[in-house]
Every structure is written in C-alpha cells, then in structure tokens.
Amino acid sequence: MVLATLIALGIPLALSVRERVNDEVRSQAHSQAAIVATGATPLMSGEPSATLERLARIAGRTVRGRVIIVDRRGRLIADSEGDSRVGVGYLSRPEIFRALKGRGVQVERTSRTLGEPILATSDPIIRGDQVIGAVRITQSVEDVRVAIRSSLTGLGALALLVLAFALVLAVILANRISRPIARLERSARGFASGRTEAPAPIEGTAEQRSLSRSFNAMTVRVTRLLRSQRDFVADASHQLRTPLTGLRLRLEGLRDDVSADIELVQEVDAGMAEVDRLSKMVDELLLLSRAGELDTPGEVLDIAELVNESGDRWSATAAERGISLSVVDRAAGKGVFCARADLERAIDVLVENAINYSGQGSEVSIEGGPDSIVVADRGEGLEEGEEEKVFERFVRGSAGRTGVKGTGLGLPIARSLMLPWDAEVTLVRRPGGGSLARISFPDSALRDSLTER
Fold first, then answer.
1. How far apart are CA 366 and CA 238, in angstroms?
2. Is residue 61 helix, strand or coil?
3. Is 306 helix (H, G, I), strand (E, B) or coil?
4. Comparing 240 with 83, which gets the higher pLDDT?
C-alpha cells in the first residue's frame, strides 16, 4: 500500500521536479544575463576592461557557465574564462546577433567549437535607446541534465527513506496487533486439546483485551461444566457398581436354587448377561469420564509390536467365532509417542468391534503402518453419513440393529483416549463391504522406535 502510494505520488512529483529544475536553470540564466547587462552599461567604452572581466567572472561562477560581453560590433571585450580571446568577433553567433538587434533570446544549440549541445542566453546592453553591446551566457546542456538528475536522485533517496520508515512502522504495528491474536490463538488451541490450566494473556488493543477476557471467562465456565459432568459420571458409575455386583450375586444364588428347572435357568442366565452388559457399560462410562486426562506418561511404542500383541490377545476370540484374524506389519521400524494403556485400549476397541460385527467365516486384519494402525473387516459396514455419528455416545449405527450386543461407547472412548496425543480415530466404509477403522498419528508423535529406545 505504501509502495503503491509512493509510486502514484512520486512519478508526477518527479516529472514536476524535473520541469521545475529545468525552468529554474533557464530562468536563472535569463536573470543573470539581465543583471550583467545592467551592470555593464556604465562600464561600456568599447574597449576591454578589468572591471568588465571581473563582472563576467563573478556571473560565470554564479550560473556555472561561460559569460562573455561584446561591443556593438560583436567583438569580445570581456570573458569569464580569461582574456585570451578578447577581440574575436562573435557576430556570427545567432544569440549575439539577435541581442545586438535589441532582443534577448535563449536557445539550445550545438556548439561548433565545443562539439556538444549548449544552452545560450543573451541580453542586449542598452544605453538610452541605443544597443551598445550584448551579454551571452552559455551553459552545457549536460550540466543542466546533471542538475536535474541530482534533484531526482535526492527525491528518490527521500522516497526510499520514507518507504523504509513506513515498512519499519508497519512491521512494528503489525507485531503489536498480531502478537496478542497469536497468543490468544495458542490458548484456544491448548483449550481445544484439553489443556485448560493457562488463561489467555490480557494484552493488545481494547477490543483484543475484551476478547481475551471473554475467552478466559468462557474457558473457566466450560472447564467447570466439564469437571462437573465427569465427576457426576464417575460418582454415578462408582455408586452403580455395588448394587450391580449385589444383583449378580443374587442371580447366581437364584440359579443354584432353580437348577432343576431349565427354563428358569435360561431366564436367570439371560438376566445375568444383561447385568454383565450393564456392568460393562458402567465401566466404560467411568473410563470415558477420565479419558483425556494425561495421568499416564507417554513413551515411544513400537507400532509393529503393538499390532502383534493385539493379534495375540484377540486370536482366540476370533477363532471361537470362526473369523480369520491376520496381522500385517508395514511399520518399517517406526514408533509412536503415546501412553501404552491408552493406545492398547483404543486398538482393542477397534478390533473388538471388527470381530463383533463380522460374520462367521469372515476376515479381520490389523495392519501397522509407518504413521497409522488400521483395522479392516468385511462385516455389516456403515450406511452413508454414519462415519461421524458412530462416534457419538450410545450411537451404534445401522449395524447395531442386526442384534449384535454393545454399549455404543467403544468408539467415543477410543477417540477420547487418542485426543490428548493428537492422534485421530476414524471409521469409514470399506470398498467391497465392511469397515476400515484407522488410528492416524501426527508427525510430531512419530519416532524411530529402534533408535529412541
């Protein structure tokens, strides 16, 4: 913006300065010629004079050119460059000829003597009503151009100085404006990732300070609400564990009492299964309420080791259900910085879902890559638009309507466990049927597991 303004204003100004300097040089030559003519009038006797020569020399220094004085016949009688050419006739010079006719002129022509363009200014010397001589001032056109270039150079230097000052000022102002916004943005990012302990600094303009105060008030309120919600879920889960345990013990005792009646045994077994399901839901709610808290320190974990251990844990369950479970290692010695318990739990959620929603004779694979862990199955899959809905609590998607038991909390737990480590858990439809569940790790979490340990 500043540069555009300087260009828009500088070009017309430069043109104006060039014309102004050119006119000033020419005007000064006219004025000096008139002054010399006036001063020489009482000194004109038709012969060379030391006073006339001194007058010409002073005028020559003033205009930075050559000043000569001629008599009425055009003979040189005074020269600012010395008396070596005194007596030489100058009547053939057009500006001298016109001045002796009573007309002062200023012309730009090429000098035959010098072989270069000159600016010649002449003025008649008049006594009474008679022309008794003439004054001529000659200046090099190149000197005039040098004067113009010097003025334009000065103007350009001033413009560069103004531009540099404007840029420095703009950088200072931009930093003062952007620094508070950047710090507020970092605070917002930290709050979004679960770090709520550091408030945003109150600084900057009045509007920025007001925004920071509003942000801090919001974070305090949201933190309080989240803490209350987690505390409520944790307290409720703890309180529910005792009656559920008591209920299961009673059902186990009742089963022993009615062991002779097959139908009653089946009903009691069904009731115990529901109690177990409810107990699992309570445990998952308790885990979900604590997810996102970095209680467990992170460490560098070998991705290949993790997927192989997961395959070992679930191979028996998959075999019981007639499902082929395979492990693929493409991690290439890569590791990830994360809490082992969190990552293992998230992987188990994805593998358990894949096995539960896959039919007998189906295939499930666990693949460890250099920046992700992928669990693929050929089960019921997802319907269009369910990719994000299934990460909401208690939402199981269309596959949950097939009769597979579940709580609808596994995927939210997996995503919540990975959130503090900046890892992303996604579930998408697999081409050809089934689902692809992926844990993607950020570049900041990836390590060379062979060298870090």
1. 34
2. helix
3. helix
4. 83
